[in-house]
DNA sequence: CATGAAATAACATGGGT
DNA sequence: ACCCATGTTATTTCATG
């Protein structure tokens, strides 16, 4: 049951009520909270909470559980966003392939505006970042890059803090 | 015990060996893995693993455990990066204060380049995003914004995938 | 609800300084 | 001899059918 995503996870596919929302919020705050404790908070039995969590994993609402780590503590002290400009029409498939070759690229996406892609890059230090950049620049299709080094964070780096809010749902 | 960070978490403060690295890697892959299972994988007893995890939480290496969620499933279908330009000298403290007022801002940082800050924003849809943008624009200090809407992701949105690698450590 | 597994605390041991 | 990290055991809580 590797990375089993449900075929359908459109907004209205699986019923997603306030209890689910509260359960997700609790698990985003602490993924190791016991089902019993969550149940006590939302008014369900531990078993009922487990059933809902299992269902949300199956439907792809919850994609996993992860420890959040201070990157600097692991030796990643440099962070940057990199705009990538490609030669001619940039084939997204080939572009994605290139991105997978560089473990320092933690996120890559196509965006509006002039750039063909925007990358998030983590490196040990400025020297390492420069080396990564040179490695990216010699890839086929890549014409030029523009880097924005992150100087300091204005908000705590909580994992998807914003998306953990009550959830809008139109 | 709100946000209790240890006084010292400089790179060399707490010994951080290969076992710690393996434990962190395991917990990033699945934050609900039992200490016993991790122990079996790294060659330690469950108790020893727990002690190391507790220590890493105290020293700030591990900042928490979080469920990873598909934002679209929670109703957040629009994502953008926003460059912020301020009037005159932008005071980072006041800027941070402003950022906290908008829950849709999931990350905010100062960066090199012309912009005073770079924001990551999640919204329900384009209409909602426009509303957020207007709300940000009328804040004091804010002179103008430039938005880059995310079109599609080229890599799976794993939580800090890159930083989970073996860890460089100079 | 019942059973096996996990978390956690208390206590004991061995290595290294 | 001390300190630190680990292992062992026992108890409570949890996961899960």
From TrEMBL, chains A, B:
HTH asnC-type domain: residues covered: 16-77
Stretches assigned to coiled coil: none
Transcription regulation keyword on record: yes
GO molecular function: DNA binding
Pfam families listed in its UniProt record: AsnC_trans_reg, HTH_AsnC-type
Keywords, comma-separated and alphabetical: DNA-binding, Transcription, Transcription regulation
Keyword Acyltransferase included in the entry's annotation: no
Source organism superkingdom: Bacteria
SMART domains referenced in this protein's UniProt entry, alphabetically: HTH_ASNC
Protein name per Swiss-Prot or TrEMBL: DNA-binding Lrp family transcriptional regulator
Organism lineage string: Bacteria, Bacillati, Actinomycetota, Actinomycetes, Kitasatosporales
């Amino acid at each position: 049951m590797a990375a089993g995503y449900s075929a359908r996870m459109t907004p209205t596919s699986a019923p997603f009520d306030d209890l689910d929302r509260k359960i997700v919020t609790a698990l985003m705050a602490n993924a190791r909270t016991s089902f019993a404790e969550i149940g006590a908070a939302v008014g369900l039995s531990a078993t009922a909470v487990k059933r809902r969590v299992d269902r949300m994993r199956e439907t792809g609402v919850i994609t996993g559980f992860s420890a959040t780590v201070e990157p600097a503590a692991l030796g990643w002290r440099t962070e940057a966003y990199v705009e990538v400009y490609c030669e001619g029409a940039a084939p997204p498939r080939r572009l994605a392939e290139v991105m997978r070759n560089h473990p320092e690229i933690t996120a890559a996406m196509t965006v509006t505006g002039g750039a063909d892609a925007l990358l998030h890059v983590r490196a040990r230090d400025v020297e390492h970042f420069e080396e990564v950049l040179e490695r990216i620049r010699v890839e086929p299709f890549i014409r030029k890059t523009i880097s924005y080094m992150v100087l300091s964070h204005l908000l705590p780096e909580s994992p998807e803090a914003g998306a953990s809010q009550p959830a809008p749902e139109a």
